[in-house]
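for the record, two folds in this file. i put them one after another cuz i was lazy. first one right below, seq on top, structure tokens after. the second one comes after a little note so u can tell where it starts
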Amino acid sequence: MRPDESQGLPRRSFVRAAVAIGGTSALTACLEQEQNKLASDGQQVASTEAEPEFPRGDPESVPDGQHRWGEYLVRDAHGNTVPPQQLVVVGLDYEGSAPPTDAERTQVEQSLALLDRAFQWGTGGNAGAAFNRGLLFMIGYAPKYFEQVGASVPEGLTPPETVLESVGEDPAHADSYDAVLMMTSDIGSVLLAAESALFGEVETVNGLPVESTLEGVFSKAGRHVGYIGKGLPADKLDNEDIPEDAPLSMGFKSGFRDNLPPEDRVTIDDGPFAGGTTIASSTLRIDLDRWYDQTHQERTEEMFCPAHTSDEVGPVGEKLGGDSGITEEDVDRIEDDAEEYGKIGHTQKVARARDDDFHAKILRRTEGVADTVTDGAGFQFNSIQETMADFVETRVAMNPDEYDDDLPAEDHGITDYLETLRRGSYLAPTRDDWALPVV
């Protein structure tokens, strides 16, 4: 994609297209677009020979847990975390030794550590930041990787085929990757530059020399991109029913404080990978035509619960503020709601899987409209949790069960509108172990 091809395209659409395409030509075009935008917004953007200078990172200040993003995310007026707009998930095949050599570990360590130096960690900890100019990323290792290098699969890391079977889905949709690299930012060129650096496609990244890459240890086996943000789904997707201000394609905001558990809750407590977490990475297809055949009130009841009204929630959920409004009483009332209203809400059902403190067991880490899904609207969903069993429990809670067998499929939450295209399960170790771990 050449820079002049952006003429006449809204900047956000152009950046999304560049991120979806990937590669150095897209990076060059994206850099020019975003450099101009940041400069027009009054933000300082210095230039090197080939790229703008975004805020650099301080490796000494980043958290040890790769998944600890909470303090480095933008927050809205209600205190909810706001996911960065752009997401890239790269599936990786392992091509290294079994077991990994010290040289290979050093190579991976230096490649990942370069990103910590090249870009600030998210907002850099600026509590009042309105824009994420940095990079947040995680590398996660699949059960296949541990088997391939002759190591034991860590406890709590369930193979994706088993996860799919446990939640009533086809195990043929399991990821075949040995690892995944998950990266997110509000700036598309930050993602493209980081990805290009890791795979030896550029000589410098944000002004720093690229002296080590993943080449020879990992190769790209797949790429999944997505986006989230106010107005983006309506702008991008071919569906006139999506509210203009909706950040997601089903029309409602997500990530309320009450359904996002503390990061400590999703962190591995003990064992060789204490301090890390597990990643559930999924791509779904959503039947938006059938979803929007309903009234806003019906969609409100199915997304939240029958006790929620359209007026109380607002067009895209903005009236709820920082809390989804789902209580333990709503959970206790599920059977009665099924009988009285002939309907049960998604958030209401999922809340059955919360812990004794009524905290959710999974933390949605990144999500967004999937740019790489054809034949319908796609959705990227990536959560972190202490064990994959926590993800399974939460996903099973979405399914129909004994007290709603008589309800039509479309009246028990949102599962009937979703089709799973891929699922993977991964271990995200702490930075101390993120370079080719073994048990």
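(here's the note) second protein begins now
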Amino acid sequence: MTPLEKVEKLCSMGNITFEEAKAALDAANGDLLDAIIYLEKQDKIHAPSSGGYYSSEKAVDAHVVSYQAKDWKKEHHSGDKENPFLSLFKDAWDFFLKLLRKGNENSFEVLKGTEVKGSFPITALVLLMIFAFWVTIPLMVIGLFFGFRYRFVGADIKATTINDAMDSAADAAENLKKSMDK
């Protein structure tokens, strides 16, 4: 609702001028309900005796008042609150897209010595771990025994904890391999 429509609405609710209505809206920071309360306190708008819908017209029929109240509610409160389920779904979708973007920007690398043998997005690794873990995990373990090392790289990979854990697993596989050769 535009400020002009709010002023006109206030003027129609009581015998007040445009200046008084604008001053009430300014005092209420543009909130129509607060402006109505402000004008009631100044006795420029009278509160209805039934405590219901405000109207400068005298409604004889209760259905007319009920219809006007529903119309006013639709006009003023239709977009105030979003459906909580839709809000939750939107937040989850935004989180999923952010996670997907980060997974595609960062990489999982397979190294043999210092040479990078393969590199692919972390999203691909996650999908492999979810849908083909019975193949992916054994291949990674076998790769450790053949001297491969793994690491995560990218702009969002700041902590080296995961890479240190990957190096210690590779070192453990190397030590196990050496102890079996003896």
